[in-house]
Amino acid sequence: MADVKNLDAYNSCSEKVSHLDILRNTMSAPFLWGAQKEVGNYNIKDSTTTAFDPFVWRRIYLATFMFKGKPRIEQVNNLIVIHLPTQFRNQLDMGAYPYPFWHSSKKWNSYQQTTELLLFVEHEKLKGGLRSAVFDQTRLNVKRVWDGKWVWTDTRGQEPFVSLYTRLFSPSNPHISKVNTAYRAFEVKLRDSACFVCHKPDNSSKQNPLLILSYPNQALTLRHETVRQIEDKLMPPPTGIFDDQERQKLIELAKAFAQAGDLALAYEGEKIATDTNEFGSKKSAHFP
Predict the structure, then answer these.
(1) More exposed terminus of the chain, fewer Cβ within 10 Å: N or C?
(2) Architecture, CATH, for domain 7-131
């Protein structure tokens, strides 16, 4: 436990949990994260979730919480539910959060007032996690006003630091520049195809799980699936990119990003799946 605005404590926690072997070796990819629909409901599919690369979730989401007290383990049919008592770091610099959670007061309050994280283990794999619907409304509620911007730049012209690969990966990682260059080139073409209309945090297309492409680090989750769906003319829906030449350009950019992401994550010790179809059968990215 530390002061909720202590950035050094957040960075230290982020470094430790991102390289914690017990999590690295048991987390499923993708890893589902969201808010519990109602107290006592442990079916994660009943809750609205977002799919994450496990390393990304540990480093930029899990570390926004502090952990206090003893965990409690509950058996629910074939599911093991781990209850982790937590306290959210709600007074960090704005750029320390994965995106402006306060765009939704309901979401921001669920982070601030949840009393525990629920982690779900099935067949020895950590499938996902939820912010518990058990709230403590006496906890300090920090008011933040959203200015309508998902991404912004500070006075130095820098994006929110936590979204960048320089924050996600170790300083010694030799692939940071390559993955960043690949994403930026891919990002331009994604914008041309209006992909960010659906793949951004407000989830206007009502995906479940949501798949985010609008931030460099979070786009790593979908790095292989975008290749498949663009090739199969599933993305953007309903029939993909009509112009074959433009579609091939986007496929090449998607592949370059996927390969660079694999190299960067492998350097951090992450296991890279050989089966790139991590989201199941041939379904739209909007309805996996």
Answers:
(1) N
(2) Roll (3.10)
**According to the model, what pLDDT value does residue 88 have?**
97
Please report, for residues 126, 224, 235, the alpha-carbon distance to residue 274 in angstroms, rounded to integers and kept in the order given: 19, 10, 22
| Per-residue pLDDT reduced to its tens digit, 201-237 | 776 777 778 888 888 999 999 899 989 988 998 877 7
pTM for the full predicted model? 0.89
pLDDT number for residue 214: 84
Domain boundaries, the chain: 7-131, 164-267
Is the predicted pLDDT of residue 282 greater than 50, yes or no? no
